[in-house]
Specification:
about 5% strand
Length: about 375
């Protein structure tokens, strides 16, 4: 009689369990994002969803959290289906919930739901991970990343280096280069282990710089930076990407290729969303600033107003980025339609404030342009 060892309940679907652990922690760190009882406006996919009860938002939030916990105890496809559907429903109620990590986790759980074969499911996860690193690196190859992130945060705020020279500034391009080359290296047997170590070191650097021992900022990205090295090791270190004719048969695999390898190219010409294209850094995105004379708004959001902003014609302007980070611990979804929705909601809430709206992109050269909105 021949016996075969079955994986223990702890080891079975371990990566999915780790993903759900990270997901729970991340959602709890930005719990206001998932609720309707907040000051920062909702931006649903359609205005009719603005009338959905706050109890639905709250119910979907706790349903998702419960499913993530249950996956550790009773791993199975049925719970994953409920988790997948509840997250999709919740994200239709507010597009600010379409954070990069949320999009990644939904796609990965979707693979667990729609692909039965373990090897094909693993390939789908690998395609997502490689796409994330490649396009994340590609979208950092610009002066905005060098000015705002590398020079502003890594050099000045963290290392205390002011007045960096040309070559030190150019060294910042090594980070996106490591991401892009690491993504390509993950696809080949001889280089995948080196890529795993290099990309894991990059996540460690992010934790050192942005974590509690560094700048202690943007805590919502900490769990993701802890999770990714585990995914890299589990998906690539012992066994690389394996392709055959049958691996392309699942429709969901083809959808992941479309979502993570084809549509992200359209983002470069403004035809696809940044957060749906592996863009985890939005230093090149425009931010919305509000000039208002409403006294209630200035008192309630006093710590979110900035003064002396170049080319914005008001003494103090509300930064919606600071507002969103303060209340929800995430950045607002960086797309023009969302900024218009925020501005229109502001006009409804504060109609007598002589409100004006401006989009500003900060870099070596600061550009500002007015945002025109219709008053509903």
């Amino acid at each position: 009689m021949k016996f075969t060892l079955q994986p223990s309940p702890i080891k079975r679907d371990l990566l999915l369990k780790l993903l759900c652990t990270c997901w729970v922690i991340t959602k709890l760190l930005c719990c206001k994002l998932w609720l309707a009882d907040r000051f920062f406006p909702l931006a649903p996919v359609h205005d009719v969803l603005l009338y959905v009860s706050s109890f639905v938002h709250t119910g979907l939030f706790w349903l998702s959290i419960s499913c993530m916990v249950l996956i550790w105890i009773f791993p199975g496809r049925k719970i994953a289906v409920i988790l997948f559907l509840s997250e999709i429903a919740s994200c239709t109620l507010d597009q600010n919930r379409w954070q990069p990590w949320e999009y990644q986790f939904i796609c990965m759980v979707g693979a667990y739901v729609f692909i039965q074969d373990e090897k094909k499911r693993k390939l789908s996860w690998q395609l997502i991970i490689v796409g994330i690193y490649f396009f994340s690196g590609l979208n950092k190859f610009n002066s905005y990343f060098i000015h705002n992130i590398w020079n502003g945060l890594f050099l000045k705020e963290f290392a205390g280096v002011y007045g960096a020279g040309t070559w030190l500034l150019r060294a910042g391009y090594l980070m996106p280069l490591i991401e892009m080359t690491g993504a390509i290296a993950l696809c080949f047997g001889r280089t995948r282990r080196i890529a795993v170590w290099a990309l894991s070191a990059m996540h460690l650097l992010n934790l050192i710089v942005f974590g509690p021992l560094g700048l202690n900022m943007n805590s919502v990205i900490w769990p993701w930076n802890v999770l990714m090295p585990f995914l890299l090791y589990g998906l690539f270190y012992k066994e690389g990407m394996q392709f055959s004719r049958s691996t392309w048969k699942p429709v969901y695999t083809m959808l992941m290729i479309l979502a993570w390898w084809i549509l992200p190219w359209l983002q470069l010409v403004g035809l696809w969303d940044k957060y749906l294209s592996g863009v985890f850094d939005t230093s090149s995105a425009e931010n919305l600033y509000i000039c208002t004379e409403d006294r209630y708004a200035t008192l309630r959001l006093s710590d979110c107003f900035l003064s002396g902003i170049k080319d914005i014609p008001c003494p103090i302007a509300l930064s919606t980025y600071k507002w969103s980070m303060r209340e929800m611990n995430v950045a607002p979804y960086p797309e023009l339609r969302i900024y218009r929705a925020i501005a229109e909601n502001w006009n409804l809430s504060f109609p007598g404030g002589r409100n004006r709206f401006f989009l500003m992109r900060a870099g070596f050269l600061i550009s500002v342009r007015p945002l025109l909105v219709s008053e509903k």
